[in-house]
Amino acid sequence: MRDIAVFSGSAHRELATEICSHLEVPLHPVRTQRFANDCLEVQLQANCRERDVFLIQPLVRPVQENLVELLLMTDAARGASAGRITVVMPHYSYARSDKKDAPRISIGGRLVADLMVAAGADRVLAMTLHSPQVHGFFSVPVDHLHALRELAAHFRQYDLSNTTVVSPDLGNAKEAAHFARLLGVGVAAGAKQRFAEDKVQISSVIGEVAGRDVIVLDDEIAKGSTVLELLDRLRELGARSIRVACTHGLFSSGALKRIGDQPDVLEIVCTNTVPISADERGPKLKILSIAPALAEAMRRIHNGESVSALFDSP
């Protein structure tokens, strides 16, 4: 079996360090240099020849900078005769660009997938893509993980006898139903219509939420407009308590503060797929680590074991 070599871009080195501690392997250094003309150069500062190389880089702000850095890392590994190159991408921001819903627009999710493969990626390990079919944009194998087990383990500490999981829209209802089954509770979903990036309307909630303890589940929270709109509907319907959960806590434009300032929101739970600085965190925020899950998936990929078995096990 070829040796493993793990590198990280500059997007989220804290997560990469934690993953390597679970794998009990070193995180090899990467040198990134910016030239006077604003171009980047990346050097992987460890031997890659015939090794099983893993490149950890979520596509988070600044997305374009981190994307180019990832492409350069991938190309550098290929040029260094890596035996196999796996891109570990905890958050794929371009997954939201997955369809042509207006004239003359690009499908960024497919384009960026092609760029990664062209740069030399042999495999991709992703976490909670915006829509599951996005992994079909890649012409190389994709291992698509989710964080529902980590989230469920957190919420099992509470009394769930009167709990309902609520999806903000029907598109996320399947994931919400899976999460509800893990917790052994009911599920509901909002009927959402989007008019602009930050303007949505939820006309109704399908399911029983009156007098219930609600867990709002979404794949990611960016500006938070959908969650805030759903909170208004839940109040009108008489929800007893509200907790908010997501995999990717982007929390742009003050979303974390606006959601945290809602008096009936008891808790906001996300994972560490996206870095959140200490000064951005509020008292209601709880961050769960997905490093053990990513590390185990990487170990199984390296050893040629089943990754889907991670979801089959209890």
In words, what does this structure look like?
30% of the residues lie in helices and 29% in strands. The strands form 3 sheets. A 7-stranded mixed sheet has the order 11-10-9-12-13-14-15. The chain has a 6-stranded parallel sheet with strand order 2-1-5-6-7-8, with helices on both faces. The protein has a two-stranded antiparallel ribbon with strand order 3-4. It is α/β, with parallel strands linked by helices and 314 residues long. The chain has 9 helices and 15 strands. It is globular, with a radius of gyration of 20 Å. A hairpin with a 5-residue loop joins strand 3 and strand 4. Helix 1 (13-23) crosses helix 8 (291-303) and helix 4 packs across helix 5. The protein has helices at 13-23, 63-79, 108-119, 148-155, 173-183, 225-236, 255-260, 291-303, 309-312, and strands at residues 4-8, 27-28, 30-34, 40-44, 52-56, 84-89, 123-127, 142-145, 163-167, 186-196, 199-206, 213-221, 241-249, 265-271, 285-288. The mean pLDDT is 93. This is ribose-phosphate diphosphokinase. It catalyses: D-ribose 5-phosphate + ATP = 5-phospho-alpha-D-ribose 1-diphosphate + AMP + H(+). Its EC number is 2.7.6.1. Pfam families: Pribosyl_synth (PF14572), Pribosyltran_N (PF13793). Residues 5-120 form the Ribose-phosphate pyrophosphokinase N-terminal domain.
